[in-house]
Each structure stands twice: as C-alpha cells, then as structure tokens.
Amino acid sequence: MSPMFVPGPVDVAPVVLAAQAKPMMPHRSKDFEEIFRRTAEKAQKLFYTQYRVFQGTSSGSGMQEAGVRNFVQEQVLSCVNGAFADRWNKCAIANGKKADRLEVPWGQAITPEMLADAIKKKSYEAVTIVHNETSTGVENPVKELAKVVHELSPDTLILVDAVSSLGGTKIEMDAWGIDFLLTSSQKCLALPPGLSLAAASDRAMKKAETVANRGWYFDLVLMEKHRLKDSTPMTPVMPLIFALDVQLDRILEEGLDNRFARHAAMAKRTQNWAVAHGMDPLAPEPYRSKTVSTIKNTKGLDIAALNKFLLTKGMRIANGYGDLKDKTFRIAHMGEITMSDVDSLLANMEEFMG
C-alpha cells in the first residue's frame, strides 16, 4: 500500500477494502441488524459517548446539514476560521437559518474569549464549531469553547464537526458537553468515502422534536425511531458498514490512546521538520492539528512538480486549499500512516529540494 499524505480520501487497508465484498443481504434482516448494532456500539467508544451514534449514507457535509436542520429553528452562530467552517455557515443559510458569523482569518483559532463576547451579545439555539479545520491545519480548542457556552448560555447546543480529527485525536463528547459530534469515513477512520457518523445527546434530540421542517433524508428524529430497531429509514450503504465493522475492530485493537499518540507524534515530527527547513506551519503553536499539517510555502516550492516527483516514489501530498493554493501545502498524517511513512516522505522531499 503506497502512502498518500492527503487529507482524504486516505489509504485503506486491504483487509478493510476486502470487507466491502461481503455478500449482500436484506438490510431489514436480523443478520444485517446485528452488524449495524455492533458498529454503533463500537463507534460509541470512539466518540467517548453514552449517546446514540447515527450511521448515515452521506459525506460529512450531509451531517453538517442534519445538524442545522434538526437542532436550529432560527438562530445559530457559526464559528468560521476556514473553508469547512464557512461551508457549515453557508449550509445553515441555505436551509433558511439566521446564521451569524464569528470569524477570524484563516490560520487562526476561535478562542474562548471571542466566543464569550459573541454569546453575551445575543442568544443562539446552537453554535457550530469545526474542531479540526482541514484547510488550515488549525485545531480549535473545543473543550474550552464548550465550557464557555455551558457557563454563559447553557441552553445553547454545541455542534461540532470532527471530520478530519475524530479517530486521530481524543474528543470526549460527553465529558466536554458536546451535543452533536459528526465525522466521515474517509479521513482518520481510514475507510472509503460515503459514510458519515454522528452522535447526538438526549437534550439535542429533544430539541429536534420541536424543530419544524427537518426534511426527510436527514431527519434525525425519524432516524432515531429506526435506529432503536437497529435499522435506518432508507437503504444504508451496506458495503461501508461491513468495512466499518472490520476497521473499528482494528482501531480498538491498536488501542485508542496508542492511536492518538501515533498521530500526535507524526504531527510533531512533520511540523518540527518544516520549522527546521524554514517553513513554519500556518497554525500557531497551541492550535496545530495532530492529523494534517498546513505548511507555509516560504521556499516557493512548485507543488505540482513536487507531487510529480513524489509519485515516482509512490506517494503524494496535498496543495493548499482555496486561496492558500501554492502559498501552502498540506501533509496529512492520519489513518493508516505510520512514523516510518512520514520519515520516508520527508526524506524524499529533502531530495526534491536539494
């Protein structure tokens, strides 16, 4: 398996890919319901939650939409510090919500002080926060942000996108008081794309029952009725559920603390290397992601040429995202990537740079 250092889709282990070839079965059968229940129970360990975990047939963006459709009737505050936080804000507006923006420049984090100032000025039904901004390599301090919300506006729900971090760093949903925590399959979980996972607290689900126009496909109240019977309202993406069953076993066998330590060590190695070569990470020290490093391209590297060279070595990295294209490059160190993979990548990059 040639390592890809891109922030999704990522490499998938052969045994996990093979699991998708399991013969089909009726999705209303007891056989499938047992698998569906098993994956949900194992996912609870990854989310550090006692609450239900939904398994949706969509990308993580689908669960972003589910969050605003189910938990917000009108007023939501969007914390925006990158492309995917911006997407969630636009998603809220597209669904008819009044979505205010608490915004900082790309590369900066949302701080508790900023959030405190915003929620003191106005009451919101929910706050949306991207934990790990894939576009910038910034990890927002969600634990501290959640604490501020609970202290100053306890009725406000806390909705968190952890698409590029859950499974790569510890996020304690219940202990931190997160109400809705979402992720998708193709990043730290190291599965093919197309599956989303989201856990919702009891108080969030009670709120959803009062919200009008939740839609149908992403109606979590409807999904909950079926989930209680180990099922879904519509046909689920069964091959990815089969793969999830196998991959969660592999993740739990590695040990969550071991897995998180591996990701943190790879991030430190990558970021220290970049600094040593005169290319600082875009994110300031306290807020650097443990799963994807966005590096300032201060040497003016030709990223397309670099990737063409890396492909001859069986690997690739990602260019900067959006307006950061060519101004930065991104090295993802998540999922199946190991420290030896990172060492090989950095050696090859040094060879390219001369």
UniProtKB/TrEMBL annotation:
It comes from the Bacteria. One of its GO terms (molecular function) is alanine-glyoxylate transaminase activity. GO terms for biological process: glycine biosynthetic process, by transamination of glyoxylate. Its cofactor is pyridoxal 5'-phosphate. The modification N6-(pyridoxal phosphate)lysine is found at residue 187. Residues 20-270 form the Aminotransferase class V domain. Substrate binds at residue 330. InterPro entries: Aminotrans_V_dom, Aminotrans_V_PyrdxlP_BS, PyrdxlP-dep_Trfase, PyrdxlP-dep_Trfase_major, PyrdxlP-dep_Trfase_small, SP_NH2Trfase/AEP_transaminase. Keywords: Pyridoxal phosphate. Belongs to the class-V pyridoxal-phosphate-dependent aminotransferase family. This is Aminotransferase class V domain-containing protein. It comes from Leptolinea tardivitalis.
